[in-house]
Amino acid sequence: MLEVTCAIIFKDNHVLIAQRSANMILPLKWEFPGGKVEAGESKAACLAREIKEELSLEISIGKGLTDVIHHYSDFSLRLYPFICEYESGELNAIEHMQVKWEKIANLMAYDWAAADVPVVKELMELYQ
């Protein structure tokens, strides 16, 4: 089972969401950015590294939300979501089709990757 982190990055009462590129697994689905935990790496270190590599941003990592275990047809993952704050950097979509700052109230309007849906729902419950 893949171990994956994701960052719910807050800035000015908006959160950062990312659309997967057409050539990625789960093409064009929306997600909270993050990535695979490497051997010997903490979840926080993974998240900071992935956000720097994929988006050119520095973040502070806060509390974790409920882990999600999801089984897709060809792989399974355990997703570790974390509430984060934007610290610095110029947003740059290096691997994603697009990234955008969105209001929490509007999140359900997007076509989310299935593993991210419980995270979106928990986030909406916490912040509305």
- Using the coordinates above, name the CATH class: Alpha Beta
How many E-type strands?
A: 8
- The figure for the number of domains is 1
Count up the helices.
2
One letter per element, helices H and strands E, the order comes to EEEEHEEEEH
CATH fold-type name: Nucleoside Triphosphate Pyrophosphohydrolase
Low-confidence stretches: none
Shape: globular
Q: Give the mean pLDDT.
A: 96
General description of the model:
The protein has 128 residues and is α+β, with helices and mostly antiparallel strands. It has 2 helices and 8 strands. The model has no long low-confidence stretch (mean pLDDT 96).
Question: What descriptors fit this protein?
Answer:
128 residues, alpha+beta, Nucleoside Triphosphate Pyrophosphohydrolase, eight-stranded mixed beta sheet, 2 helices, 8 strands, globular
Give the topology, please.
Blueprint: E1 2-11, E2 14-19, E3 30-31, E4 34-36, H1 43-55, E5 58-64, E6 68-71, E7 76-88, E8 98-102, H2 117-127
Short description:
The protein is α+β, with helices and mostly antiparallel strands and 128 residues long. It has helices at 43-55, 117-127; strands at 2-11, 14-19, 30-31, 34-36, 58-64, 68-71, 76-88, 98-102. The protein is built from two helices and eight strands; from the N terminus they run E-E-E-E-H-E-E-E-E-H.
